[in-house]
Task: inverse folding
């Protein structure tokens, strides 16, 4: 979803309070209205905006009461530095994402998490979870057989192993929360290093142009770019950008790559 | 800075446009007003709010013109899931942060970045950058000598090595941008896995209570908690929380730790 629309929505304290409430449990309008001390009419208006943006969804229960809940996973990141005001929003990444192929980041998570992810993924046919294999001893146990097996493993169920599964999930939870904190810290660290690096590039050049060169190099840091797009990105006339690129190329910092320019690293 | 205040500020499109403009270059009021097509009075009002929040600062140049720029590095993260509406804002992490001590995340960045960080840090006395050592051949070269050395290394300067330093910084830039993208993807992956794990914990319990148990275990996933704080966190009566914890303890999922409860993982 669009970051700007998301920031507009989140810029309202009552909408944030509604989201905080719905993250705790699905609610109906009167509940929300009572909790917030805001008129039902205003609550309905906020819910409509959140629903239109796909953040919130509703369903009607057996008693014909309409419950609202958070519709899906979403992340928003805002980066503010002297060189950057960037916003990025995205849905959760797929469980099948190959997290081992990254070049600069390794995640260390233990097997339990993987097993949980695989068990939960309906496309998955292989299953490493021992209890599930036992439950579906016949060929090709479908995903819902596995689910059935874990349902019967509730704390009240005495003839099951002592919640091996639930303890495993709790362990996963702990690992994932810690991982999230470390990733967040890592991103703050990278933000600082990026700004430092751009400062140092700026300092390389005398006078006011340093910032421009820093932006130019940054524009190429995510991959080769055609000169016109680069000019647009740094908001400078194409001929100024062309001259600057030739100057940098003469010093071996950038190079042509067909119709594009790239860092010579 | 306070995430709520930050979201209130960023919830305005014109303030976002001002920040985007200032991230490109420092500007004075008339420039911003012309660029945005918004009255100088409104621009001044937005700038005042941004300045009060510490996002923007101003300085007066030689021609007595007041320029505004982004004051410092800041990151905001918003997490929306059926279990969570969380906001987190923080300044950049220190360059001296020990990024090797994390348990679940490893960052792979090459030496150049480290050298740049060390060169830039004024507290740093040891210096691994060869050019800087040469420039400050006498004892204890202060940080500003190093800065002077890199200033003279501009592309116009022919009697210097061919911008080895600048090319190194460009390489750092590329690495850091990629690292940032991978970290961002990693967080989206973790977000998905966390929601899956909480779903699976919910599924463990019959009926409506599953969500409550999932929240309870999540409340302990970041470390031991006293029962009253846990009750506050999951917004449930203390006796209900106490009963639930005893039930989970009987199945070995949680355990007492003095006055606190913790996951038994």
Result:
């Amino acid at each position: 979803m669009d970051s700007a629309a998301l920031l507009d929505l989140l810029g309202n304290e009552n909408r944030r309070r509604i989201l905080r409430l719905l993250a705790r449990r699905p609610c109906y309008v009167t509940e929300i209205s009572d909790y917030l001390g805001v008129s039902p009419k205003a609550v309905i208006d906020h819910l409509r905006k959140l629903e239109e943006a796909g953040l919130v969804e509703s369903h009607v229960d057996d008693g014909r009461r309409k419950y609202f809940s958070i519709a899906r996973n979403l992340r928003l990141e805002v980066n503010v530095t002297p060189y950057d005001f960037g916003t990025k929003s995205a849905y959760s990444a797929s469980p099948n994402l190959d997290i081992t192929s990254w070049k600069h980041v390794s995640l260390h998570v233990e097997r339990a998490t993987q097993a949980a992810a695989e068990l939960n993924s309906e496309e998955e046919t292989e299953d490493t979870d021992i209890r599930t294999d036992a439950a579906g001893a016949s060929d090709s146990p479908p995903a819902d057989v596995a689910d059935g097996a874990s349902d019967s493993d509730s704390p009240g169920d005495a003839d099951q192993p002592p919640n091996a599964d639930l303890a495993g999930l709790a362990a996963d939870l702990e690992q994932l929360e810690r991982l999230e904190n470390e990733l967040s810290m890592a991103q703050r660290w990278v933000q600082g290093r990026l700004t430092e690096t751009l400062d140092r590039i700026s300092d390389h050049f005398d006078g006011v142009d340093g910032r421009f060169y820093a932006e130019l190099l940054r524009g190429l840091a995510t991959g080769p770019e055609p000169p016109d797009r680069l000019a647009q990105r740094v908001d400078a006339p194409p001929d100024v950008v062309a001259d600057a690129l030739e100057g940098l190329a003469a010093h071996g910092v950038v190079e042509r790559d067909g119709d594009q320019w790239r860092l010579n690293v």
